[in-house]
Amino acid sequence: METEIDAPSDIEDPRPLIEPETAEAGRARLSGKASTAFRTISEVSTELEVPQHVLRFWETKFSQLRPLKRGGGRRYYRPEDVALLRRIHALLYREGYTIKGVQRVLRTARRGDVETQPSEARPQAAQSAEPTIPGLPKPPSRSADKLLRELLAELKQLRSLLD
């Protein structure tokens, strides 16, 4: 027979309160490097759980990725490169974009077009806990979303007239 023991509520927890760390600080702590440190392809590959050859392939497909190359062709990724790789990885693996789709998103972000950015059909992009990267799209504003919905409704009407 088990008895339930009530813990006194007036006893304070002796452990100090720890502030929740940011995702970036957590990654830096796990890798043993500062968040501003350069990373090797091996370190980035391990962090993203993607083979090294995939990272090299992405370099050929995304001109924004430009790691430093030292003697012998050894790659060193800047913190901005790592953040961009995380974004590419999220778009491809979590949000289901194709390579061409990610290229379009990055190209659109560079131009700054709000109307052609992904809509709320990709809710994870808006809820991403990853840091904001300059030049990458932000979720569309409510007015842009409303405009897109109105245009879609109008296009459907026009298509029904043609059928």
Main CATH class = Mainly Alpha
In round numbers, the mean pLDDT is 74
- Secondary structure: number of strands: 3
Q: How do the strands of the widest beta sheet line up side by side?
A: 1-3-2
Characterize the overall form.
elongated
Uncertain ranges: 13-21, 114-131
Biggest beta-sheet profile: 3 strands, antiparallel
User: What is the C-alpha radius of gyration, as a whole number of Å?
Assistant: 23 Å
Structural class: mainly alpha
CATH architecture group name: Orthogonal Bundle
Strand content: under 5%
**CATH topology term:** Multidrug-efflux Transporter Regulator, Chain: A, Domain 2
What this model shows, in words?
The chain is mainly α. It contains seven helices and three strands. The chain has one domain: Multidrug-efflux Transporter Regulator, Chain: A, Domain 2 (Orthogonal Bundle). The protein has a three-stranded antiparallel sheet with strand order 1-3-2. β2 (about 70) and β3 (about 75) form a beta hairpin. About 15% of the residues are buried. Mean pLDDT is about 75; it is low at about 15-20 and about 115-130.
